Structure to design on (408 residues):
């Protein structure tokens, strides 16, 4: 599947926390920085997200801000 | 300024392309991966975005997807 | 590629309009309704978006509103 | 109310799941495809979202990605 | 039309700038603060957005960040 | 920190409601209108969000819709 979202960063799941509806997943990038993703618990379970799993973070470019 | 957006990744501007309304900025992260940001041209100019500039990429967690 | 974004609707590209940075793509769904996608022109060209092409529309659930 | 969000798809609520803050609503479109919406529980209750209800799904065009 | 997006702020259009695809609209709120909206030019024209027009700004709650 | 997000509105926290993952914060603007923000509970606690606190609401322009 080729996706229009141009931001696709490989990383490793560092932690996952879930409640009934939403899940919060912390992903560590190769450079040591972290990205937090908030998705539905259903999606997290369908993808089989678990600690230590290699995963790709995906972000639409129009959602990315910059700061000095 | 402390911001609720938990994703704040440091990088360097690799390229910038602008038209009347929108600008597309490519940022290189320390690990070598890239992130594309689409912001208004006004914002890019206010921040002084230019090639080689050190910059921080900011993303709200609810905008971050995951994929296998 | 399995993606956490749970909204993946199949359709056909009805029209595409591009400028230097952004592209606007109208997709027709099987039920006859239409979805408009605004992505970067670079993404549209990388995906080879053109009229008549079968394509999948992808939307993160947290971006979907409801109305009466 | 006329809204700038150009994606307004009619459908029927198939299921709803709520916790204290967030609600997840599955909507079935006429063509048989489904869309998941994550909104606040307060919004879901204010709109009176319930199974079988006819509803309109609303999405801003800049939130819509494409994939092959 | 009742909409799940809970942020609906009344204001007045202060300026509008358009190119082929995207439009940038500055809205002044009653308290004197401003909000910038980036929508498609097609949407801006369909809504008849023009300087001095009274308009409502609409934002999904999950898109709103906070900062100190 | 200068941020590309051009919408930065000052207000006062009117209420906050939290569960394990997500928090819902209602902010009152000087003109009397309200904005609801949904962020992670971790972010809300890191920022020290509490009733009566002066806070800034931040929104990326591409997330702002308009309606008549």
């Amino acid at each position: 599947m080729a996706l229009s979202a141009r931001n696709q960063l490989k990383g490793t799941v560092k932690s996952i926390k879930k409640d009934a509806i939403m899940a919060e997943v912390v992903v560590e990038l190769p450079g040591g920085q972290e990205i937090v993703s908030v998705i539905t618990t259903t999606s997290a379970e369908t993808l089989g997200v678990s600690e230590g799993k290699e995963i790709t973070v995906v972000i639409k470019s129009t959602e990315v801000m910059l700061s000095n």
